[in-house]
């Protein structure tokens, strides 16, 4: 059986990954698609005021909303798929879920970024490519908006430079 894990987060890029997977593997009658959403782990000081059941229900609702468009696309195509959600670091959680499910490949969508952006952010795609021994297909989506492409990394670079200047002195 050809098992394909597709991380989804209700973004255009994850929808593009689903569409790519459908085009590439949808004709295979033995293909099974696994949609996976990663929910953040709540900080301890927040979670101590909520029951585990409440947290679980909240994360499950958010995960279902994040996977709604991908699920609708796969249902429309009449393809076999399952949905799950996990919590934790996105890259590690996706990889661990792929191992747990016995997936043959991971298809992930990402936006086009410049090297400066990738240097200062914690990219799920980069982390997944670093740790995975399962083949990872990266489907590139649209470019980032100008402010996010240049403004945010420039602010990060400026802050890092200022911090280094303080440490050196």
Task: Give a brief rundown of this model.
The chain is an alpha/beta fold. It has helices at residues 12-25, 44-47, 52-66, 68-77, 90-101, 115-120, 124-131, 146-168; strands at residues 2-7, 31-39, 81-87, 105-112, 136-143.
Write the layout of secondary structure elements.
Elements: E1 2-7, H1 12-25, E2 31-39, H2 44-47, H3 52-66, H4 68-77, E3 81-87, H5 90-101, E4 105-112, H6 115-120, H7 124-131, E5 136-143, H8 146-168
Q: Which sequence of strands runs across the widest sheet?
A: 3-2-1-4-5
Q: Give the helix tally.
A: 8
Radius of gyration: 18 Å
**Helix and strand pattern:** EHEHHHEHEHHEH
Shape, please?
globular
Largest sheet: 5 strands, parallel
Identify low-pLDDT runs: none
Q: What's the mean pLDDT score?
A: 85
* Secondary-structure class: alpha/beta
Instruction: Tell me the distance between the termini.
Output: 60 Å
- Beta-sheet strand percentage? 15-25%
* Helix-residue proportion: 40-55%
Number of strands: 5
Describe this structure in words.
Helices cover 54% and strands 22% of the residues. It is α/β, with parallel strands linked by helices and 169 residues long. It has a 5-stranded parallel β-sheet, sandwiched between helices. β1, α1 and β2 (31-39) form a beta-alpha-beta unit. α1 packs parallel to α4 (68-77) and α5 (90-101) crosses α7. It is globular.
Highlighted features:
alpha/beta; globular; 8 helices; 169 residues; five-stranded parallel beta sheet; 5 strands
């Amino acid at each position: 059986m050809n098992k394909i894990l597709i991380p989804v987060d209700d973004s255009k890029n994850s929808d593009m990954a689903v569409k790519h997977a459908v085009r590439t593997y949808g004709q295979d009658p033995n293909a099974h698609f696994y949609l996976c959403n990663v929910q953040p782990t709540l900080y301890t000081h927040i979670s101590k005021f909520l029951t585990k059941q409440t947290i679980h229900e909240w994360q499950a609702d958010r995960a279902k909303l994040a996977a709604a468009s991908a699920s609708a696309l796969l249902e429309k195509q009449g393809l076999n798929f399952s949905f799950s959600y996990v919590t934790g670091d996105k890259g590690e959680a996706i990889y661990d879920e792929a191992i747990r499910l016995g997936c043959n490949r991971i298809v992930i969508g990402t936006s086009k970024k410049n090297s400066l952006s990738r240097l200062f952010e914690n990219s799920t795609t980069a982390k997944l490519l670093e740790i995975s021994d399962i083949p990872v297909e990266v489907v590139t989506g649209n470019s980032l908006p100008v402010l996010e492409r240049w403004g945010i990394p420039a602010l990060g670079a400026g802050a890092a430079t200022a911090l280094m200047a303080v440490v050196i002195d």
